[in-house]
Design goal:
mainly alpha
């Protein structure tokens, strides 16, 4: 450890002791921006023989029980590294050098299992029903669900799982070690969105180390220091995967991918069903390409959400479309006769407004002209002498707003029929 790092840590230790009560809030807010201090604290924790380790652990515990939210999160960011140091020392049978780390972990655990009044806390978790859509699944993608009497009785019911009350611990033993560490990692995962990038990197690295130490993959990863196997529980590995899954989408793709492969490797060796299920589910949901750094923007998981309003296709068969289809079918022979009788005289389909101002229906367009109007048009066809229409053999037709207007105008001075 360099002298510069030692000086930064010693200054931090003395600064908080002389800090007035009114300045704690602003001091806690400024701590997250002190990257040099955070890096130096990691180096102290990684050296079990350091003289600064004990005062640092004591200071971190004071932060945690101060009640200030920012100070509590500052301590939580070092929790994965503290767990690894404790497990590494326990695997080497050198329990004397891990006394201060064990005391810090026990202190955080005993504070978290009780509320502000000192009563034991009971945590509850609601498991969503698969019959209702969520941000993780769509009922339609699961397949058809048989509507049996048992399924209908369970429809809409939410299952609640309770955790606790947890007993207080005075020391860590081989029997309660992973019960305490699993609960601490659960508390860390509850504050994952506040953890800096350095803490997520530490989480992924210690997950890989814990899972491969003492196994052939350790030689592939080139991890040194601890060569003995570290026992883990199934619940602890599930909590590790929860943090790794968050790291995937927050700028730590490479480290998270390596950590997930190592956890899956260890779960296969231990034949733990829960970590195998969670790890394979995460692996199947990952995108094909690597996620870039989160500095470019917030990353998220793309899912398809069920629309709130029903969508009606434009080609849907309705009563109006059936009526329109019947009218078109009835009008086809009439239109054909008109074209023959008028000598290929084509009448365009236009919307005609009656005298009373009412618009006629779509099926009444061909009936808007009376029989006498058609005969009148036939008599006028041969007298059309407009030079612009002689070459085409078609009279110029102009649209007017009503049939009455067309009949009143009659033939103009050039013998042209106006519509």
């Amino acid at each position: 450890m360099l002298a510069v790092d030692t000086g930064v840590v010693e200054e931090w230790l003395s600064e908080f002791k002389t800090l007035p009560e009114a300045s704690i809030s602003s001091y806690a807010t400024s701590l997250k921006d002190k990257t040099a201090l955070i890096s130096s604290l990691y180096k102290v924790i990684q050296e079990p023989q350091s003289e600064l380790l004990e005062p640092v652990c004591h200071q971190l515990f004071e932060f945690y029980r101060s009640g200030e939210e920012q100070l509590l999160r500052f301590t939580l960011q070092f929790l994965p590294e503290l767990m690894w140091c404790y497990l590494a020392v326990s695997a080497s049978r050198d329990l004397q050098s891990s006394g201060c780390i064990e005391a810090l972990l026990l202190g955080v655990y005993n504070l978290e299992i009780v509320d502000k009044e000192g009563h034991s806390k009971v945590l509850s978790f609601t498991i969503p029903s698969l019959s209702k859509p969520s941000v993780y699944h769509e009922p339609s993608s699961i397949g058809s669900m048989a509507l049996t009497e048992g399924a209908l009785s369970q429809h809409g019911l939410s299952k609640v799982v309770y955790s606790g009350p947890h007993p207080q611990r005075e020391m860590l033993t081989a029997q309660n070690r992973f019960e305490v560490l699993t609960f601490l990692l659960l508390c860390y995962n509850a504050a994952l969105s506040y953890m800096p990038a350095m803490s997520l990197q530490s989480l992924c690295q210690i997950c890989s180390r814990i899972c491969v130490c003492g196994y052939p993959r350790q030689q592939v990863r080139k991890y040194k220091g601890v060569n003995s196997r570290i026992p883990v529980s199934s619940e602890f590995m599930v909590q590790m995967l929860t943090g790794i899954y968050y790291a995937f989408y927050n700028g730590e793709w490479d480290l998270a991918r390596k950590a997930m492969d190592d956890v899956l490797y260890r779960a296969q060796l231990e034949l733990y069903p829960e970590p195998l299920l969670v790890a394979n589910a995460i692996k199947a949901s990952l995108p094909q390409g690597a996620m870039k750094s989160s500095k470019e923007g917030t990353r998220c998981i793309q899912v398809e959400i069920t629309p709130t309003s029903s969508r009606i296709s434009r080609n849907a068969v309705t009563s109006m479309s059936i009526r329109g289809h019947r009218w078109k079918r009835n009008e086809q022979p009439e239109n054909g006769n008109d074209a023959t009788e008028l000598g290929n005289f084509i009448i365009p389909e236009i919307s005609v407004t009656s005298v009373a101002g009412e618009r006629t229906g779509n099926g009444e367009k061909s009936r808007a002209l009376a029989e006498n109007d058609v005969q009148h048009l036939q008599g006028v066809q041969d007298t059309a002498t407009d030079p612009r229409t002689d070459s085409k053999g078609m009279p110029e037709i102009r649209r007017q707003k009503s049939v009455r207007k067309m009949l009143e105008d009659g033939i103009n001075s050039s013998g042209r029929v106006q519509f």
